[in-house]
Design brief:
single chain, 436 residues, mainly beta, Beta-galactosidase, Chain A, domain 5, 2 domains, five-stranded antiparallel sheet, binds calcium ion
Length: 436
């Protein structure tokens, strides 16, 4: 009996506490966005200025409780470059470990919560800022709260991504992706799909291919370069809980021991997406040296991808990846597409490409599903659902050009599931802040 009374007393206390909490709840979360990284820049959180980073924490209100959510602060130095570490542990572009105008707070839209009144915030904080995210399509909203404390806070809860430097390998909630450590390759050659229950596919990737072929003027010479001619040196990294960052210096071997101008890019690996930019510095107009030039790029899968289906925004009826080119596959519409996907019991991957407007060129679908095709260099002869792009780069002019590959890893893909992933770029979340 006594235990029951204690139990009842505690239950009443809990209900009273919950009511107190509910009364401080101002507005229910309506936003449905999950996979968008939310980046809040320092200048919109001015009240936190000079706060040591170890005293900043992110909260949100979900299911009636107000609690910490995973977040990451990426500091930028005076030049706006994100502070990372070199592989031997030396700070690269270090900042001051305090919040300032060009530092970034990053978290995932999935962690947004309800709006709360100021009195629902935990005591002991020195400053608080409400972060409001709005879906510009639906007008739906969600909130998070960035708090500065007077003392160091404990490490945040959980992480969505891990980066293993020694293996040059990313392990995220929804995928694993591996490079070739020590070999200075620009491309990844391991891709494992996972759903949230931790079910892993085998590695389904042969390699990511990046190939240039040029017919030079005034000669019968054809120059071919492939991803093995691209040297990529990992110069820095950050193993953050929201996004892992790999900073690489890339250059292409041209001829006679000469390399192309090198470019530095940061690749970002999130819970269920990857942002993978490539910078191309061209010292000449392609048309001044070549009568014809093509760039072919895409993922060549391996037999572990057999049984998966390929589709894209121009070909919404899926075709079967089985190493054999069917009549449907030969008839695929090759016009430029917004997104493509490869889906199956192994898992799902959606890809899209962003090109800088300076890249004026012809482009069409590349799709070859032919296990007897020879396309060296490759780790496994044959093409399984090899898909991506063929670009006619003859018209590309001198200058610095950028293209960014995006990969998304939805769970149990069904037609239409690409929409929220496309919205990340096409209808970016609107973020506003309010000091409390
Ligand atoms: Ca800074
Ligand atoms: Ca700083
Ligand atoms: Ca086929
Ligand atoms: Ca192959």
């Amino acid at each position: 009996m006594k235990e029951n009374q204690i139990g009842r007393g505690m239950a009443i206390a809990a209900i009273l506490a919950a009511m107190a909490a509910v009364s401080a709840w101002a507005e229910q979360k309506t936003i449905a966005r999950q996979s968008d990284p939310v980046v809040v820049t320092g200048e919109t959180l001015k009240t936190l200025r000079t706060t040591p980073l170890s005293q900043i924490a992110l909260y949100s209100a979900r299911g009636g409780t107000f609690s910490r959510v995973p977040s990451q602060i990426d500091e930028r130095d005076g030049d706006g470059v994100i502070a990372v570490e070199t592989p031997d542990g030396t700070p690269l572009h270090p900042d001051d470990n305090r919040w300032d105008d060009n530092d970034d707070l990053v978290f995932m839209a999935r962690d947004l919560g309800d709006r709360v009144e100021r009195d629902a915030l935990p005591g002991g904080h020195a400053a608080a800022v409400e972060i409001e995210c709005t879906d510009p399509v639906s007008g739906a909203k969600g909130w998070a709260y960035c708090l500065a404390f007077r003392d160091r806070v404990r490490d945040g809860p959980g992480r969505y991504v891990n980066y293993d430097l020694a293996k040059d390998y990313v392990t995220a909630d929804c995928y694993e992706l591996g490079y070739t450590p020590g070999q200075m390759k620009s491309y990844f050659s391991t891709l494992i799909l996972k759903d949230n229950d931790g079910v892993h596919s085998a590695n389904i990737l042969d390699r990511y291919k990046f190939r240039v072929r040029m017919n030079l003027f005034f000669s019968l010479i054809t120059i071919s370069r492939n991803e093995d001619d691209m040297r990529s040196v990992l110069v820095g990294y950050k193993d953050g809980p929201i996004r892992a960052i790999r900073r690489c210096t890339n250059s292409m071997y041209l001829k006679f021991g000469i390399r192309s101008p090198s470019s530095v890019v940061d690749n970002y690996y999130y819970r269920d997406s990857i942002e993978w930019p490539t910078l191309i510095k061209l010292p000449f107009n392609v048309s001044t040296i070549a009568s014809e030039a093509f760039l072919v790029t895409g993922c060549d899968w391996n037999p572990q991808a057999e049984g998966m289906r390929f589709l894209n925004s121009c070909n919404t009826t899926p075709v079967l990846v089985d190493g054999v080119m069917s009549e449907e596959e030969k008839r695929l519409d090759k016009q430029p597409y917004l997104w493509s996907a490869i889906v199956g019991s192994q898992g799902s991957l959606i890809a899209r490409l962003w090109l800088s407007p300076s890249l004026v060129m012809g482009k069409e679908l590349l799709y070859i599903d032919d296990k007897n095709a020879k396309d060296p260099p490759e780790d496994l002869a044959g093409h399984w659902g090899y898909n991506g792009w063929t670009f006619n780069i003859t018209t590309v002019t001198s200058g610095t050009h950028r293209f960014i590959s995006y990969f998304y890893f939805p769970k149990n893909y069904a037609p239409g599931d690409e929409k929220p992933y496309l919205d990340i770029l096409d209808h970016p979340l609107r973020v506003s802040t309010r000091a409390l």
